[in-house]
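your task:
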Amino acid sequence: MRVRSSIVINRSIEMVFTYVSDPDYFIPGRQVEEVESITYRFLFFIPITLRTRHVPLKWNRQSPAGPLGVGTTFVQVMALSGVPSETFLEITEYDPPKTIACKFSGGAVPPGEARIVLVPFADGTRVIETMKVKGGCYRLIGPFLTPLMKRQAKIDLHKLKERLESLPEEN
């Protein structure tokens, strides 16, 4: 299953990269738990409503400490309905201020990869986000989950745009 989304943010490429590659971006307090109901049509005529839940991280541990780079790993703990769940991430590509990518697995998250590419665009930056989810059952249910993942990716990118454009541009 592969989902790709993009958006233009009216901020410099350096500012956007600094924000999306900051491990503290994921700290508690910057995120809130959100529940959203999404209705889509299965086989074009059967309405199905699914509830999605964005769960904030409780904590984020980086290893080794220090600047990010290829091979840097993170353990992230989130609590879904009060049950803690660990996700493991490893940075697989790091090319400031253009690209950051990681692979992830564990907990409630299926194994996969995420990649963010930043491209200068007019007075801003085009953010291109690609997520791939791997695994046995995801080959079967991918056609049903892909529309939901695409919608959630667009929502997340719009929230990122709102957050960054509300901050003052750094000189």
